[in-house]
Amino acid sequence: MIFGKRRKKKKEAESIVLFRQIIRTDGSGGMPEKGAQFQIYRKDAGSYEMAQPSDRDTVVCDEEGCARSRSLSEGIYVVHQVKGREDVQWTKDIEVELGHTGKTHMIPVYSAMQEYFVKAVRKDAETGCVIPLSDGAFRITDAEDTPYTAAVTYPEPERLASFTPNEKGYFITPGRLQYGVYRISEEKAPYGYAKNTGEESFDVAEKNTVIQNGITLVEVEMKNKPQKGRLHLKKQGPLSGGIHREKNKTADRIGVSAGTGYVYRPYFKEASGAGAAYDIIAAEDIVTPDGTLRMRKGDTAETIVTSEDGSALSSELYLGRYEVREKKAPFGLVLCEKPEIFELTYDESGCEITQTELEFGGERQKCFIHVKKILNEDSIFGVGSNGEIKDFSFGLFAASDIAMPDGSVIPEDGLVEAAFCGADGEICFGGDLPFGKYYVKELRANSRYRRSNVIYPVEFTYQDQESGSVHLYINDGAPLVSEMIRGSLHGIAADHHNCPAAGAQIGLFRVETEEFTGENSILISEADQNGAFSFSEIPCGDYIIRETGVPQGYIINEAVHYISLTFDRQRIDLKIISRREG
């Protein structure tokens, strides 16, 4: 018997099956990661690229998170993740030893979602040091501007949407934040500091983590500047001034000018305030929020000097109460002995620099000249109570040359101010007027009233240093009365043969009248035996005359006659033809 050589049994290749699972953040178990990609290569090759094609493979997980390699020869292989979701922690390399039994190696691959605690630290923007204040608040939002909230149980169960640093100047979120881009912003600055109005963007990702006290977290910084304040001081004092000569453009509500010619408007400058010196003195111990004594009560913070416009701005001062004393007055003004107190208080808005305004004495003494106007009214014609008072204007004039500090002059009879009466018939001239003699004169009147030519003198003289204003009243405060412009209408009612139409009734109507009856008339005049009729003391204006009634044997003449009374004591004559019947 011939025996051949015994054949060796062929080694069976083995394969790797991966089960990729993501651990849910809510603890409800895992879920497959579709699309996760892994490289499998022999370890002794050193890398996927250096391995022989037969000793390597690339697999991609399907919907079930499952991926199967092709058959590989025996040896130790490395399973290396190359693709996956950004928000999931990638798997660290896994080593698998393959034999020759044809076994399929089932490898579960677990990873958790990327999520980390966030530590927000508040620092002083000037020093870079942590601000050790348990004050203020922050909020965190994600890329969709959805606020991050966290449930806490101490001191009471609640869900927080804003977070306050501890006494060490930082806070750590109660829970982890999932992978993504976030923004932190300041809702409220700590007392004594300016609010950081910007937003700090940060990524919650593994690459940005640090380990502190065994906790993996993402750290982000927010910086604040100490809030300070400034004093803006202004010294009032009219040591310079002049005249603006301009066309009189004062007009009423419908554009009617208050008068013609030019207006000489005085003005005053505050140049006198230049060179005034003031000490800013601490009115209390000035202590910053960190407990540091910056200035003792009575210490002088600085001395400021006013510029050409009479103003001065202090340097940045720590918040607190200060006293300002005038130590040098500008030339021509009296030293103000009374100190002024101001306080630089913390602005809850969190602005960087607060500002407090302060004015010192030296105001000019003001002069107000009052005019009161009233009108005679006619209730029958409805004149005098329909706003006619607002058509009256008056002018304030210089009674003699009035010199200004810069050498300019308001000439004699120069118009200083023009104004229309208000609904109450009152006018108030003045304000900043130079001392001198003036007079008031009526410039315009309502078309139904006479304009007065009376001149009312008034003099503005310095009274005393304590008086802030002087009030002068034209006509000793008695109202100025205006009389109406009135006219008359005289007429004859007769037939075509000039026979008087005695008893004919003639109506006086407003021009807007449409139905000419006795009830709609203003006045009715009945022709006498000579046919004569008349209307006297009629306020000027436009009217309609029409026959409203006739004696027996006549027919009413429906013709309308328009008349217009335009000047005082005007007389209009009119003849109305009354038609006979038949």
Number of helices: 0
Kindly name the structural category. Answer: mainly beta
Straight-line N-to-C gap: 173 Å
What is the averaged pLDDT score? 89
Largest sheet: 5 strands, mixed
What's the helical proportion of residues? under 10%
Describe the protein's architecture and organization:
This protein is mainly β. The chain is 0% helix and 48% strand. It contains no helices and 48 strands. Strands 9, 13, 14, 17 and 18 form a five-stranded mixed β-sheet that branches. Strands 1, 2, 5 and 8 form a four-stranded mixed β-sheet that branches. A four-stranded antiparallel β-sheet has the order 4-3-6-7, with no helix packed on it. Strand 23 and strand 24 (293-295) form a beta hairpin. The radius of gyration is 49 Å and the shape is elongated. The N and C termini lie far apart (173 Å).
